């Protein structure tokens, strides 16, 4: 059996590494698969691939726009899967999309298709715990990790259930609100991170509003790593090339690596140029399933 | 779900057969739970019910009359009775639901109401209830709807509400829903999302139907007084999300009346939709082969919605209600015809129900001599400017 | 006329003290006699009364509620009760009178209704009743009013009425009255002049007051149920021609309530007028030293009238009612204030009554703790566009 | 005692003359008194002088406009009376106005002022029989003839009362409707004329819509003469000089005279130039009161 998303991330974390999962909306720009490659090359521990949906309820303007562009360009689930099948970047790929695409035929069919294309995880923000039962079973059958979300508003009791049911990692929302960049790291994020860490051994990654290397580094202190989406998508919409996006991911990578064991108030003065960390130093590349 | 349980409490899962549920981000789950608990508690509290009934009576103008449409009935060879939601305060059935939800929000200690709006009627109703109870109101409205329902935008301003233009997607109701949900996620602590139809995550479809049930219950009693057979042969209402229809049907679901929901041809989720998940619930949704939700197109801003309330999808599957479509042109003709035969300028939304009745009566789809109850969900003042060119 | 006879039948002369009468061209005298006879006959006929009551109930939405304005009352330190004529079909008290007159016209075998209109509310009501009863309607409206009340013009068109722009004089209500009268003279055989307020030649001031009496009678009973003292300390209504005030006062003239009519400062015949003859009746009229009638100027098209119903002049002379004026600026502020405290967008006309209550309560003119019944004669939808710039 | 309007007109009628009363709105044009003179010179049997009112309910657009012009030019009752006092045209002058001007102070004062200025009659179209009581008394006291109107809609019984109460002449409305020119002579006018002639010895004059000499002539067949207003006022508003207005009155005069004892269908072929009739041939000029 091949390494699962969860095994891969857990192993990397075990090696003392802060986890970094950058995001790209499939089809938002021609050659978006090069963006995935650039992310991987820049030290991503997994890459989240957004399957664009017309009504992305949990997404802010940036990812909405990326989704609209992708859909306008004719991006479909089938087409994304075709392109992903050809991708081998050495780290796991995780699909992120909305329930309506997942349930087009059935959750089982969708999971099977993802697995066949080599994806290792699935995030569906509008399918919460109560609605996730069948989908979780279907995913498990396909050795696909269904990642559940936890929010600052989630009760401790419910966090426990989410942590128990989630696979791959727990996606911890830094704040109430939609995706998009924000300045501060909210206190509630720190609390959520601490709570989840107490409740589970699964990796806990923060997402939503991670908008600078320094912020990523600070957030990572309260959990195991971060998902970075809007900050990258904004650059992509502004015309950034895969190489430039990769450089940005690398800068977050450096901040995360530097942040290990540092106090939060030192982050602002992190040296600009640090040795580019080599993921291979820590955990080997992902063998294709 | 057995036949006798139709239009009852959908339980904690919020399921109506295959439909409904609570497909929202985890961030909103506690809020949905909180609202469900608060609603269950309030709905079982005679004090709350009294307060609601009082406001609906002394403030919103209930009960609304049942008007026999004498001249049009004669022309069509049927007996047509109009349930006059157009006579409520603010001019549509939306107020029934909003007064209920605003009281609930107040009971829950919320300080602000959020709402999406298409035709602006729900937005105006929300702004109204907010003013009445001293709450703030923020209303999300598609830019396109802001243009075609300017009167209602101005009304909301006068009422002190903040109207937020939504510039994404089709810039109509669907996008306003998205934006309202997004905003709700970010402000769930002090804000209550006052949803305008029988859609959204549980408990909304159920709760809104319960708040609109008053239409059907009043009409049921009025029909009993008016009709020899007590119950009409047909009960007809237009469907955007489906709240006026749900409230009406709820009063007749256990009778022999045939229930008919009428959609805009360009927004007919019950007719042309497939099962899907949108705005927090599973139901029939207009979508392309890839699962992208389509833009609805209707002359009536309030029906420009690509989904349908989950309970309607269930009623359709079980055959208890049927769903029909009419074209924009039929709708405008129906509006003018009612105005000129009965002196009632109905909303474009409501005119959908009428357009179907006219077509069915004239084509024999409704047998001569039949009795038809039609819910006139709102008045047409808001539409006058936009149909000017269509006359 | 003795005190106890106030607001009763003015007899064949149609006199209210020094006022009233029938100052019309000889050509119209037979029509006036015919109408008076028909009205006397109908008003004494339980069948006619029943038919009217039924239409007002099942069609026009009566009884209208009495809404306690809780939040504004608290701010003003009084108990303010609103009689909600804004909730009637077509959105103002005008419908009460029009349904009555249209039934009368039908009974008299007339085929067409003529009407003048200012704000357009009476025109819309006339167009509505005409459609309902299968009559034609021709509405005269000043060009200036056509501009500022466009919504109502479009409503009349949709209802199938002919709207005739009046381009003479001030191009407002006064001129529309002249033109309607002229047209009536020419078509008196098949046309019934459906006058919109308590003015014109006998029997109109009396008849219109009787058709509007339903406001006061309902309110009287509602106040009795609502107020410990049964009768409010003040009964307040706005005055254009004075029909909503007359209908309201009629319910309270024999009580201890103080009756207050509120005029627009720029159209305050009761305050600044002299006795004169206009549009068929003798009353107080705004006129220059030479007897030329002046143009009224008000932000509310429905109050832009230089005269006042003759019975009001009589009530003023006898001290039974008093008449106050408010400025346009106070009126717009009052409209917005009511919208934001109670969620009710009142007509600019009705907001005159409110503006006076606010001023009087805040200046001690109305003692703290007083109870005030205010007739909210109509809703403000028609005004929204025109106050947009004033907000 | 001086000759009253009624005596004057009755005498002229007795002489076999069809009566002609042209109208002018006082103040509608500068030098409007010259118009009165021109009318008299052209064979008028009396002249009706309109006192302009802002809301002339019974008047059509032409006279409304004339009234508006006059009011805009500052015309007042006082000013009109001053000018009329100086007028001596040999035929009686009759005031025509609306109730609001008549009742400014009181009907009695108004009548006294008219009489003092030498006017012999008063027409108030919005003061019908029932409202005319006091005014009729006041007028009588001043030897001013209060002319009442009769309409096609007036019942025979009421016509009798009107005929009984009117002084000077009975003003018979040719048709329902306001002043203004109309093409045909309505059948109802003929009937009204016949009825009135049966009921009273007072002169009966038709007014409203007399718009051509031929029509005047035909109408006069059914009564004793005509009042001509809008047709003249339209010409005045269009800029006609007093002389031209006088010529038009003269043409009506000729038609009326030619019409005596002629059948209606011959009117169309009336010779254009007939001897201008001299009023003095029939009744002497009116001595000043
Ligand atoms: C008058 C009127 N009727 C109907 C609707 C459609 O809503 P629903 O289907 O929820 O009744 C609207 C929505 O704005 C409306 O304004
Ligand atoms: C809403 C409203 N109120 C009041 C008036 C004034 O009329 P009245 O004084 O006859 O009540 C009008 C006239 O158009 C009106 O539309």
TrEMBL record, chains A, D:
One of its GO terms (cellular component) is cytosol. Keywords: Amino-acid biosynthesis, Aromatic amino acid biosynthesis, Lyase, Tryptophan biosynthesis. The keyword Transcription does not apply. GO terms for molecular function: tryptophan synthase activity. Residues 259-289 are annotated as: Disordered. InterPro entries: Aldolase_TIM, RibuloseP-bd_barrel, Trp_synthase_alpha_AS, Trp_synthase_suA. Residues 259-269 have a biased composition (Basic and acidic residues). It catalyses: (1S,2R)-1-C-(indol-3-yl)glycerol 3-phosphate + L-serine = D-glyceraldehyde 3-phosphate + L-tryptophan + H2O. Pfam families: Trp_syntA (PF00290). Its EC number is 4.2.1.20. It comes from the Bacteria. The active site is at residues 48, 59. It is an enzyme of class 4 (lyase). Pathway: Amino-acid biosynthesis; L-tryptophan biosynthesis; L-tryptophan from chorismate: step 5/5. HAMAP family: Trp_synth_alpha. NCBIfam families: trpA (TIGR00262). Tetramer of two alpha and two beta chains. The alpha subunit is responsible for the aldol cleavage of indoleglycerol phosphate to indole and glyceraldehyde 3-phosphate. Belongs to the TrpA family. This is Tryptophan synthase alpha chain.
